[in-house]
Amino acid sequence: MTTRSLSCSRVPRGVPISRREAGRYLLAGTGLVLGGGWHAAAGKAAPVTAKAKSVIQIWLWGGACHVDTFDPKPAAGTDYSGPLKSPISTKVTGMQIGELLPELAKQADKYSLIRSMTHGNNGHETASYLVQTARQPGDGSVYPCAGAVVSLFRGYSAGYEGLIPPYIVLTRPQGRFSEAGFLGSRYKPFATGGDPAQSQFVVEGVVAQGITQERQKGRRQLLGDLNTLQKTLSGNAELAASEKCEQQAYDLILGDAGKVFDLNQEPAELRERYGRNTFGQSCLLARRLVEKGVPYTTINYSGWDTHKGHFQIMQRKLPELDKGLATLLQDLSERGLLESTIIWCCGEFGRTPRVQWEAPWNGGRGHYGNVFSVLVAGGGFRGGQVVGASTDRGEEVQDRPVYPADLIGSMYELLGIDSAAQLPHPQGQQVTVLSTATESTKSGGRLRELV
Amino acid sequence: MTTCLLYVAVLAAGSVTAEGIAAEPTVFESSSELSPQGRIDELVLSRLQQLGLQPARICSDGVFVRRVFLDVIGTLPTAQEAREFLQDQDPDKRRTLIDRLLLRGEFADYWAMKWSDLLRVKAEFPINLWPNAAQAYHRWIHTSIQQNRPYDQFVRDLLTANGSNFRVGQVNFYRAVQDKTPQGLAQAVALTFLGARADKWPPDRLAGMAAFFSQISYTPTGEWKEEIVSFNPATPGTEEPPASAIFPDGTPVKLQPDEDPRVVFADWLIRAENPWFARPVVNRAWCWLLGRGIIHEPDDIRPDNAPSNPELLAFLEQEFIASKYDLRHLYRLILNSQTYQLSSVARSDKPEAAANFAYYPLRRLDAEVLIDAVNQITGTSEEYSSAVPEPFTYMPEGQRAVALPDGSITSPFLEMFGRPARDTGLESERSNRPTADQRLHLLNSSHIQRKIENSPKLQALLAPTSAGRPAGFNKAKQARRYRYLGIAQDPRGSGDAQSTETAVTSLYLTFLSRFPTQTELTQVTEYAKSASSAREALTDVVWALLNSAEFLYRH
Q: CB distance A242–B26 less than 8 Å?
């Protein structure tokens, strides 16, 4: 375990845990781990030139259809577009998007679209791994995904001091190939659990179901009264360390630190604009986390694996996505935070552009990794641009392929993370943040068009 | 011995608290006089006297029953077990309890867990034993402990076995090492059995020892992931095996080409006169029971890391050899000493007090022991699984964490509370250091909240007095349940105040293995009056006891 200098005056000398360190483990739900010293190499501070400070990843789990969202193909006919035949114009001349995204159309100057993302993999887990790590699966190591890498380089080792962990997932974990990989549980995201759209957002460890603040306070008092051993051994160093940890825990339970999760502090009108559903309120929460300096937040937005009933589901989900994401862009922009906050929105792949009308799908779409779309915004990415193109029927890359490494590498650049820096590896293997030229990772080049 | 007695008596009489009042024994201390019970106590107390350090008092029966259960079988006593011990009038009841615990089934579970940490029993990454092999390895360790196999035979077997990793569990010793070069294996042997960090040795000494481990082959078979570990005499065309090797004490030895050099090493190691053999393990055993080695850290033995009490170490070593390497005998000897039975309420805050065992040190419960204790009390269960490799391993409901056979089978709780990764075999891999996320988890997680609120055992205690009998109520079953909980009768039967007191007494026996003090009873009664319902108040008391230092620590 590396020892860092204490940075916070609230931690007395001699307490064998620093506030930073405490925060690092705090809430992680996964804990301390891996005694060895190999973490010591971790996380050199980012250069001051970094444009982006935070990332919000909107993860369309299951794979959203590019043709219905950011790359409409009305000319390909209803076998491709289904009932969504009338794409709409946006604030940006020449950029058209799906008809169920009118709010996003109004914000089009704030984001850009990549219409030529590709990796060719059609398995959920492997494609998720590819898109978020930019590494080919199956070489024996499980690499960390972008959130864990950012948490390593922009988290506690780089000056982040919050009690809220540096890498948050709203609200359910994404699974083992979308997490910390060999960096270990220390860099796993904190998944809040609960539902921010409920009147009480139950956050694991912070807000307990059915226990009022009054009762929390009463309990704390009771614990103090009944803690006979603690009182008998006052001055015991072991117990003093534990007591310090308890104070930090109560900063989250009863103090200000945990208030970031209290969406009731936001105006009702704004909550309405984000959409009173789990996704919309997650977007609002992501903005609050960005305001607190949290480096990486993933909104794990599931329900996009639409093999059947595809268009009915789109009628319901796309307006939700539209409202939440468009309001997030506008809200961040109005608060001057969009310049320093990267948003990226995509799933692990697209969906088969040709609608599967046949049984048993009866109007569904399958997995499609050949080509799909990504929305990027903020943090130094220019808005109002379209990068690359797919073919007329949205089936192949027509122009300027963009591979996962190109997108993630560009984000790291904006965050001031050196892609050639070493990652700490448990067995001391020499591995860099992204593959080097000698390793055979496909690349179409960084997104110079947007940076 | 007489001088010790006198010394102790004088100190006790003169003992004052910080407030300047002669201290009454606390609930954690016994009023009985500290008097040496044997050679261990003589050696420890005379050392303390030399240093001018006052030992703590003897611990109370409540502290003892809890401590000895946790230290010997890694298991919390039930309310019933605690009550029986507390009410037992036999003056020799501590000795009787120690004997009984050393024969309990959980003894082998708990010590197999400890040894599996050192022997790195883990299916996957970075050790890669594979699940069947980890299970076989653990089974061999468990059986050895259960049958009380003498330690010299245990070590010799680990060092010299040949055979399949699936069938001859102990051969996995040589597989459970990240660096399988002769030097890497020699380092693992040195750490495990000599308690020494060979990477700090002069290079020629390590190289001399490495020669003993240069002829091991790992041969795959037709079965998936099976490997035969065996002595590999020189095969034509390969490098010549080394003709000589050097024992860690510097003695060179000639190796015969057809002789397994591991056997040569093992036979050198386990000789009674070899100072490298018994000392490390008796020091470890002492450390496991008393929280600190006589040489500390117990796996960092080197000439410049002197024992705090050399005579004590020498005595334990002689006893261990004379008992033919019987670890249970060694434990019994230590556990029956007054030194082990000192209270954790220190009466000297000088730093040498800890190193010289003037009091029992506080230690947070091991991750596995803690969650097992919570599950035992609440009657709930955990899910344990191994995510790698596929197919995943899932343990059946009711699995105790202490008895998990494989370090890759885990849960978020175990990881959060510092269960060792079993990557290196170092004692320090286990971290019982408190962190804020641990506190948050115990204070406020849904995991713990559900255990408390959905606990059938606790709800039986906390049920409001006005509640009617549930459908299918079975009087005999209910009586059994109350016996199990350590309470005489239905706590709902009598008046409110009395039933609260009965329930609180049972909770204290359940969580802390002692009766509540009058002050504590009053505090709880007051709290119950202020709460909106008796049931809610008692739930809060459960929560507070679970979060108290007395529950979370060995003390």
A: no
A202 close to B (CB below 8 A): yes
What phi, psi does B464 have (nearest 5°)? -65, 150
- What gap in Å lies between CA B183 and CA A390, rounded to an integer? 57
Mean pLDDT of A224-241: 94
Tens of pLDDT, residues A391-450 = 999 999 999 999 999 999 999 999 999 999 999 987 677 899 998 766 667 899 999 999
Q: Is the pLDDT of residue A32 over 70?
A: no
Q: Is residue A247 part of a domain?
A: no
Sign of CA dihedral B366, B371, B374, B376: negative
- In this model, does residue A58 exceed pLDDT 50? yes
Structurally, chain A folds into a number of domains equal to: 1
The answer to whether A176 contacts B387, with C-beta atoms less than 8 Å apart, is yes
Mean pLDDT calculated for residue range B82-97: 98
Q: Any idea what the CATH number is for the domain that residue A297 is in?
A: 3.40.720.10
Contact indicator for A295, A56 with CB cutoff of 8 Å: no
Restricting to A residues 54-93, those with a Cβ less than 8 Å away from any Cβ of B are none
E-assigned strand segments in B146-208: 163-164
Residue B25, by phi and psi: left (phi above 0), alpha (psi -120 to 50) or beta? beta
d(CA A388, CA A116): 5
Cα B126 from Cα B143, distance rounded (Å): 26
From residue B75, give the alpha-carbon distance in Å to each of B67, B406, B414: 10, 19, 16
Question: What is d(CA B112, CA B116) in angstroms, rounded to the nearest whole number?
Answer: 6
Asked if residue B465 has pLDDT above 60, the reply is no
ipTM: 0.89
Nearest alpha carbon to residue A105 among A429, A329, A368, A340: A329
**Contact criterion met (CB below 8 Å) for B446 and A193:** yes
A70-95 per-position pLDDT tens digit: 999 999 999 999 999 999 999 999 99
**Cβ-based neighbour number of residue A3 at 10 Å:** 10
Residue A226 maps to a domain: no
In this structure, chain A runs to a length of 451
Closest-CA residue of B relative to A248 is B436
Give this prediction's pTM. Answer: 0.81
Instruction: For residue B525, give the chain A residue with the closest CA.
Output: A222
Mean pLDDT of chain A: 87
SS (H, E, C) B387-398: CCCCCCEECCCC
SS3 string of B175-187? CCCCCCCHHHHHH
Query: What gap in Å lies between CA A81 and CA A73, rounded to an integer?
Result: 6
Whether residue A16 is contained in a domain is answered as no
Q: Does residue B77 sit in helix, strand or coil? A: coil
Domain assignment present for residue A211? The answer is no
Query: In terms of residue numbers, what domain contains A74?
Result: 33-201+262-432
Is the per-residue pLDDT at B186 higher than 80? yes
- Contact status of B429 with chain A (Cβ, < 8 Å): yes
- Taking every pair of C-alpha atoms in chain A, what is the biggest distance, in angstroms? 80
Proportion of chain A in helix, strand, coil states, percent, rounded to 5? 35, 15, 50
> How many residues can be counted in chain B?
555
- The pLDDT-based confidence of B435 (bands split at 50, 70, 90) is confident
Radius of gyration of the CA atoms of chain B, in A? 26
Residues 6+ away with beta carbon under 8 Å from A422: A41, A430, A431, A432, A433
Q: How confident is the model at residue A21 (pLDDT cuts 50, 70, 90)?
A: very low
Label residue A266 exposed, middle or buried (CB < 10 Å: 0-12, 13-18, 19+). middle
> What are the residues whose beta carbons fall under 8 Å from the beta carbon of A268, sequence distance 6 or more?
none
Between β-strands A296-301 and A54-60, what pairing exists: parallel, antiparallel or unpaired?
parallel
Q: What are phi and psi of A345, to 5 degrees?
A: -135, 115
Q: Cβ of A34 and B435 within 8 Å?
A: no
Q: Which residues of A touch B363 (CB under 8 A)?
A: 238
Determine contact: A233 vs chain B, CB below 8 A: yes
